[in-house]
Design a protein that fits this description.
Mean pLDDT: 92
Helix content: 25-40%
CATH class: Alpha Beta
Radius of gyration: 16 Å
Strand order of the largest sheet: 1-2-10-3-4-9
CATH architecture: Alpha-Beta Complex
Shape: globular
Number of domains: 1
CATH superfamily: DHBP synthase
Low-confidence stretches: 1-5
Length: 219
């Protein structure tokens, strides 16, 4: 049985937090660092993610460098609620409304046509933006404290698997981020399903936690 993580400092930039009773001061401190251009590793439901202010171009560029990720691969973002989608998406098709109502908060990333003012390094020039509402309590509180979209890409080196525990996080990432929020072992698995609603019918880019069958049952 996994021991329940406690709120504590593990080393200079790794903080352990109890997901059931999180220390809000750690959340606010992490959010403050993000607002100042910092980069944070944080828990989502299945895997750890790398978060920066999605509207801070310099911080977003840091994500690509830390992950050793090609700049032509777009980054998805996390938002507080369905109401925040319109600040990023130029169009919200009716099928997207159905997906959001059924699967958010949760493990479904929906790809929309991006508004013209969405930073191009997020979209990688595709004109599209992937959006998700998280459900892990730490991720939920972090996005709420930031009050801005947060990048939601996995905390891994490009081409390598995501991690469900900080012990498996590469030192190359730990050493280059400003904070690591460790909430113990996560569910693990496939991560979020990614579906593109800019096509008709929608295109499943990656099948993950939400199955193709579940999506087909909606549209």
């Amino acid at each position: 049985m996994n021991k329940k993580p406690k709120n504590s400092v593990l080393n200079s930039n790794v903080y352990r937090i109890d997901p059931e009773d999180p220390d809000l001061s750690l959340i606010y401190e992490a959010a403050d660092r993000i607002k100042k251009g910092g980069i944070i590793v944080f828990p989502t439901r299945t895997l750890y993610g790398i978060g920066v202010d999605a509207f801070n171009d310099r911080a977003v560029n840091r994500v690509f460098k830390v992950k050793q990720r090609a700049v032509h691969n777009p980054l998805s973002v996390l938002v507080k609620s369905i109401n925040d989608v319109s600040s990023l998406a130029a169009e919200i098709p009716s099928v997207a409304d159905k997906f959001m109502e059924r699967f958010w908060p949760g493990s479904l990333t929906i790809v929309f046509k991006a508004r013209p003012d969405v930073p191009s390094n997020l979209t990688a020039g595709t004109g599209k933006i992937g959006i998700r509402v998280p459900e892990h309590p730490v991720a939920v509180m972090l996005v709420a404290a930031l009050d801005n979209p947060l990048t939601g890409t996995s905390a891994n080196l490009s081409g390598h698997p995501g991690v469900d525990r900080i012990a498996n996080l590469p030192s190359e990432i730990i050493d280059k981020v400003d904070r690591v929020i460790d909430s113990g072992k996560l569910k693990g698995g496939m991560g979020s399903t990614v579906v593109d609603v800019t096509t008709d019918p929608p295109t499943i880019i990656r099948e993950g936690e939400v199955s193709e069958k579940e999506l087909l049952g909606i549209y």
